[in-house]
Amino acid sequence: MASTIWNRRMIVQSNLYIAVLDTCVLAPMPLCDTLLRLAEDPSIYIPKWSNDILRELRSTLPRMGYTAAQAERRINAMEAAFEDANVTGYEGLVGAMTNDSKDRHVLAAAVRCGANAIITSNAKHFPSESVRMYDINVLTPGDFLVQQFHQDQDLFAEKLVAQALARRVSLAELCSVLSKWAPNAVRLLLDLG
């Protein structure tokens, strides 16, 4: 058993899959919590964001009912937990991006950090002709969670069980909430039994 855990953690720790998390996937707390738990050690992927993404998050959270203090506390906790997540030096690339003008900073940050993917609910803002040359996938949170499930089913399940326990809800209740963004990943998880 111990060697299985050690082997799995060695494989996971060597994983260099980098994903830029767009504001729209960081704003809904249950989804954000799931995405960031999957990035905690042992991680399934490496999360990235930028100052512009966090600035958008600061302005989005109050529109979702958070106070400014709650929004700041949440962003500070994210930054403290993932000290290396902030991408810098992308600003000079923004003008060269050809995707939706409101999300060019997201693509520029992804290019700058060598991301494998951008996780967003606004895939239409990143047309394939804008991202193809950078070899960056644009994934919905649902598609990304399915991918992460297949990366390491046991670890994925472990992290969601821990999330349910931390939120003091059953796994079924957590899955019901997450099914709004990731119905296929939820189905795969529940099928594990």
Overall 3D form: globular
Radius of gyration: 17 Å
Spatial sequence of strands, sheet with the most strands: 3-2-1-4-5
Oligomer: single chain
Count of helix runs: 11
| Structural domain count | 1
The CATH C-level class name: Alpha Beta
CATH topology: Rossmann fold
Task: Tell me the structural class.
Answer: alpha/beta
What is the N-to-C order of secondary-structure elements (H for helix, E for strand)? HEHHEHHEHEHEHHHH
**What fraction, in percent, of the residue positions are helical?**
55-70%
CATH architecture: 3-Layer(aba) Sandwich
CATH superfamily: 5'-nuclease
The proportion of strand residues reads 5-15%
End-to-end distance: 20 Å
Question: Would you report the number of β strands?
Answer: 5
Query: In this structure, how is the largest beta sheet organized?
Result: 5 strands, parallel
Segments where pLDDT lies below 50 for 5+ residues?
A: 1-13
The average pLDDT is: 92
Give an account of the 3D structure.
- This protein has 193 residues and is α/β, with parallel strands linked by helices.
- 58% of the residues lie in helices and 9% in strands.
- It has a five-stranded parallel β-sheet with strand order 3-2-1-4-5, sandwiched between helices.
- The radius of gyration is 17 Å and the shape is globular.
- It starts with a helix and ends with a helix.
- 36% of the residues are buried.
What does this entry show, briefly?
With 193 residues, this protein is α/β, with parallel strands linked by helices.
